[in-house]
UniProtKB/TrEMBL annotation:
It comes from Deinococcus koreensis. InterPro entries: MFS (IPR011701), MFS_trans_sf (IPR036259). The chain crosses the membrane at residues 21-45, 57-74, 81-98, 104-122, 142-160, 176-196, 217-242, 254-274, 286-304, 310-332, 344-362, 368-387. Keywords: Membrane, Transmembrane, Transmembrane helix. This is MFS transporter. It comes from the Bacteria. GO terms for molecular function: transmembrane transporter activity. It holds the Pfam family MFS_1.
Length: 398
């Protein structure tokens, strides 16, 4: 896949994009609650050996729904598809809350599966943002979306004490109450879709935008881009989901786990103002190589003793994911037919990682899991090798 560069384009129309950005920020907060704290809920339900199962169900459901939501959005528009996804997520969070509070594992896992199905749709909001701007500014648009996502994430992790208080009022734990909070955030996000008016996509008339999925995947570099996205998603979700369990074993309380997740969220989204423009300026290779290096560092530091290293690991994990994810998402904006399927591959990787990760921790320890994630993190280097030299936007071909 070739890299395209050009002179800086007009400023982003953030005013018209704001409802979309805010909805995605709230959804990110809800995702943080459902995915990250689900392992602790399973442990509380008496199934620590299956701590990774809820996250696996989330990822599996997202993998199954991503392609369907992608097809729906191509046919009926981003607004309808995203609105339905946010609504499904709100219902799933409510079901998961009721199941966890009542101690009904099956109902809790059903809620997790519904949340995953929703994620397969609303995570594609990034393509809606990127499609609204010229190609030379798409990294910047994606970075701005990630920066806005910090708001929703910190709304959850930064208010751990009030969530603990809510859990006390409801007669349950903070982790379970967090699912109710997540459902509320997704409900608001669904309402925001009524206020969002999608912008006209300035570059989607290109031939690559009309390619079928099979034809798009046949273009050199598209499959390696999918590899980078799936790897970044898989490594990030695996370590993000299971590091809180390691911290819990080290005696870290809920507020400490929330602090670890806050650092991770900061790495994932807080530097979008920088990483997006850098990828616009220097190209996709920066995202793939930098992402691989940081994901590798995150896996290695996660295995070191002490909670300080856990904090370092979680931050590096988020920032490495950011670089690879922004680069890969920008590259695939020109190929709508493969976006949902590629997201599905990422969810498959995440689901397998969390499911096997829980088993690996139970049988061989967290250090073994971290070592395997370190090897996994090297795959985006192949994606960087497959990127072709930059060409002007007007003549670049995928």
């Amino acid at each position: 896949m070739s890299e395209a560069t050009s002179a800086p384009a007009a400023r982003l129309d953030l005013g018209r994009l704001f409802p979309l950005y805010l909805a995605q920020a709230l959804a990110t907060g809800a995702t943080t609650v459902s995915t990250v704290l689900s392992s602790l809920i399973m442990s509380g339900l008496g199934s620590e050996s299956l701590a990774g199962l809820p996250s696996t169900l989330i990822q599996a459901s997202a993998a199954l729904s991503a392609g369907a939501f992608g097809a729906l959005m191509l046919r009926s528009g981003r607004r309808l598809g995203l609105g339905l996804a946010f609504t499904l997520g709100a219902l799933g969070a409510a079901v998961g809350f009721l199941g966890a509070r009542a101690g009904l594992m099956g109902l809790f896992l059903l809620g997790a599966a519904m949340m995953g199905g929703a994620q397969g749709g609303y995570q594609q909001a990034r393509y809606a943002a990127a499609e609204s701007v010229p190609e030379a500014r798409r990294g910047t648009a994606l970075g701005a979306l990630m920066l806005m996502s910090v708001l929703g994430s910190f709304l959850v992790t930064g208010f751990s004490r009030p969530i603990e208080g809510l859990g006390g009022l409801l007669g349950t734990t903070a982790e379970v109450a967090g699912w109710l909070v997540g459902g509320s955030l997704l409900g608001v996000a669904a309402g925001l879709m009524l206020a969002w008016r999608p912008l006209q996509a300035p570059a989607l008339g290109a031939k690559t935008a009309r390619l079928s999925m099979r034809a798009a995947f046949a273009i050199p570099g598209v499959r390696s881009t999918a590899l980078a996205l799936a790897t970044a998603q898989g490594v990030m979700v695996t370590l993000m989901s299971l590091t809180p369990l390691r911290a819990h074993h080290m005696g870290v309380e809920h507020a400490g786990v929330a602090a670890l997740i806050s650092g991770h969220i900061l790495g994932m989204f807080g530097f979008g103002w920088l990483t997006g423009p850098l990828i616009d300026r220097f190209g996709l290779r920066l995202g793939y190589v930098g992402g691989a290096a940081l994901l590798l560092s995150a896996a290695l530091t996660a295995a070191l003793p002490g909670t300080v290293w856990l904090g370092v690991s979680m931050f590096l994990l988020g920032l490495g994911w950011n670089l690879a994810f922004v680069a890969g998402s920008k590259a695939l904006t020109r190929f709508p037919a493969v976006q949902g399927v590629t997201d599905g591959l990422g969810y498959v990787a995440s689901g397998l990682g969390t499911l096997l990760g829980g088993v690996i921790i139970a049988r061989a320890g967290f250090t073994t899991l971290a070592a395997l994630c370190a090897l996994w993190a090297l795959l985006p280097l192949f994606s960087a090798w497959r990127v072709r030299p930059a060409a002007p936007v007007s003549t670049a071909r995928g």
